[in-house]
Structures are given as structure tokens and as C-alpha cells.
Write a structure and sequence with these properties.
homodimer; mainly alpha; 13 helices; 2 strands; DNA-binding
Amino acid sequence: MSRTDEVVDGIRRMILDGQLRPGDRLPVEKDLADTLQVSRGSLREGVRALSILGVVHTRQGDGTYVTSLDPARLLSPMAMVLDLQDDGAMPAFHSVRRVLETEAAGLAATRMTDDAVAEARAILDRVPEIMHGASVDHDRFIEIDIAFHRVIAAHTGNPVLEALIESFAGRTVRARLWRGLHTEGIEERTHGEHEAIWRALAARDPEAARIRMASHLLGVEDSLPRPENLE
Amino acid sequence: MSRTDEVVDGIRRMILDGQLRPGDRLPVEKDLADTLQVSRGSLREGVRALSILGVVHTRQGDGTYVTSLDPARLLSPMAMVLDLQDDGAMPAFHSVRRVLETEAAGLAATRMTDDAVAEARAILDRVPEIMHGASVDHDRFIEIDIAFHRVIAAHTGNPVLEALIESFAGRTVRARLWRGLHTEGIEERTHGEHEAIWRALAARDPEAARIRMASHLLGVEDSLPRPENLE
DNA sequence: TGCTGGCAGTTCATCTGATGTTTGCGAAAG
DNA sequence: CTTTCGCAAACATCAGATGAACTGCCAGCA
């Protein structure tokens, strides 16, 4: 086990033991290096790794602190790593997204506040103004797409589910997804399906919301370019 | 943006550009440091971070290589970070696991080979011998529990789903879960539910498999200790 | 009194150079 | 042809020095 791994494990253990709690400040580099019996260089490598994993957060001139450790923060690094995936993995990927978002829609249908429903409505209302005739502002449409799905995820009452969906359907991933979709009139169809989902949510009908969301995402999967290599 | 972040981003970009492909070897530290205009120390911090994220793999005396980048490898670091979660997040966590495993059971029911069904059977057959009378070999029962669920996940045909389930229901997480369950006869009940899931799988009945798995995991959630802080 | 600006100390950021450890490979010996 | 040995390459780790950024405090001013 390398020195750096010892540092990562050591800090992880300190958190698990309750020796370090969210928001706490870590000892200064030199002290911590002494404690863990490594040089400052190795210590920094370990701390940096934990920083990228979202476990700690360091500010120059101040110190290094344990983050809030909530699911959203801890799951977010996944997104960065996920878009390294080969395009061939996209279908498997999107199937999981469908499962997650379908569940989210069902949960949101019973848990969304009136305000949240209105917020979703406001997002969809922005669509007509960017779909004037033949030309569609593609980037802004994607923004709306993301925003709509995000509102739903945000009102599931399950932060873990929300964070996972954010990773699986966040900006970079979504941009890649839309790049492969060149079907004519795809925006109109998507918008129509969003409207159907919204109606189910507004009616507080979880079953309908699940079906509409699943149908929506299955449609997207159908539009996905087929992987070249068939078994 | 710190130097280290530039390194991480730089290497990530080289992979995205196809300049580096899975299995490829990175330039030696000094060269890469020159290319990215950073010192060797900073370079190492960045490479180490990517190493912990599972993107690259470095061997002393040899060099640093891009990993296979498959979902299992890229999602596995999540498990380490996930058991830093507060116990209060356990229910949200387990709900997601239930959704994932339910889907997995449904998929596996139609995709499992006869060999895989036999493998699952063999795992369950190990149970009687460790449940002699009142005393139960707790650790070995957990091992069987993990193995059974893992076989199902492995035959969904979806590596992303498999990797996610592994993270959400892997060894460390599962150990924590079982710590909180002290209901009398929980092992017997669990085993009975596993048997029911197996029958659905053997019958190649996806709907039944889904229901049995969901029921099984909902039962586990009921046994979960209630969080202390009610809103 | 209350606010503002600057100063000093602490802490992280980065670089440099040196030394230890491991690995891979080819040459030499059998 | 096989085995063994030694060298060179590459990563691992350390130590020291310098720079940059933030915090807290305190004096000066209105």
C-alpha cells in the first residue's frame, strides 16, 4: 500500500471514527504529515485525491476542511468520470437512467409541492418562444430539458436518488446524448412528452407519471444510434 | 483552477480526444510535466487523483497506463466514499438500491443462463449447513447474501447497472446494513425470500422476480432502524 | 462609537533536486 | 534454449525553499 493510500485511508478512518466531523478543519499539513508518518508531498497527494472525491475541501491560506459529506457532493465526481465512457456503453447507461428517472417521477407525483408544479410549468412555458417555426435554439432547448428533469428529481424527497440522476443526466452527459439524436422533429416530440409528464405530476398521479416518464425515456433510447458491433 | 486540476483536466481531455486510449501508456512524469507546464509534484498529485478514481493505473518501475475505463472500474471508487455517509442517509440509500435491484431481478429473469440459475441455486444450498439450530454463522450468512444478489446483478446484461449495484450493496455497505438488523429470525425470513426470488428466476418470470425482489428489499427497509431526528 | 484600511502570521501551492525501490529487458553463462 | 545477473528506466518518497492567499487584529479616521 502506497504512502498516499495510507493518507487517504487514514483520513477516511479519522472521519469514520468521529475524530473528524463534517465542517471540521484538518490539522495543518506538517502536523498531519507527522501524524501519518509521511512527507508533506505524499500527504498532499492524498489530500488532493480526497478533495477531488469531494470528501475534503481546501482553501489556500486558510486550511483544509471536511465537507458536508452529503450524497450530492460525494456522487458528483462520478459525472466527470462517466463521460469517459465509450459511446458503446451509452445504451446500458441510459437504461439505468430510465429506471432512476421513472422512480423519481413516481415519487415526485406524490411529493411535489404546488410551487414545484408551478416551477415545472414555468420551465415548459419557455419552450414555445424558442421554437418559432423551423429554427430551434438547440442549446436552450437542452437547457430546458435538463431543468425539467432536474425539478422532478429535486422533489423526490430522496437526495441520493437526486444526486444519482444528476450524475447520469447532467450537462455533459446530456450534451453527448443529444449529439446523437438527429431525428426530425425530435424537439416537438420531446416537448409533447414533457407536457404529458407534467400533467401526470399536476394530477398527483404517480402511476401515470411513471408510465409517462418511462415511455419518454424509452423513446429516447429508440432514437439512440445503434452500436456498431453486434454480438 | 489549480495546477493539479489542470493536470486532471488535461489527461481527461487527452483521453476524450482519443490521444490516449485504454491500455495506453502515459508519457513519463517529466515529459508530461513539461507538456502540461507543471512541476513533477503537481503532475503527480493529478495523476494520483485519477489513479484513485480508477482512470489510470500506475506501476512503480514501469509506467502509468490508462485503465480499461469500463463502468465497473470507474464506479467502484464510489463505494469507498459512500460508506462515509451518515447513518441517517441509509433509508434514502436503500430505496435506491431497491429500485436498482428490482430492475436487475426483472432483467435477470429473462437473461440468466441455465448455468447462472444453477449457480444461484448452489449459493442458496449453502445456507442450511450454516443455520444449525439457534446459532447462525452471521458472517458467512452475509457472504451468501452478497453472493446471491451479485449473481443476479451479474446476469442483467447491463454492466452499468451491475456496477452501481455493487457500489450500493457491496461488502462494506452491506456489513453496516446488517449491523442495524437485530430482528429475531431475520436470517430465516431473508433466506425464505431469497428462495422465492430464485423460484421466479428459475421460472424465467420477470414480473414475479421484480415483485419478489421488491418485497424482499422493502422488508429489509422496514427492519431498518428509524432515524432519530424526525422533522 | 463604528467603520475602514493595512499589516503580520498562518497555511496552502508550487517548484526543485536528490535518493530509494521496483520493473523490464537484454546480455552473458550454463 | 533456458536461466541468471546486472543495468537502465520509471515511479515513490523525501526535504527544503519560495510564493500566494486568506484571517484576524489593530490603529486611524469619521
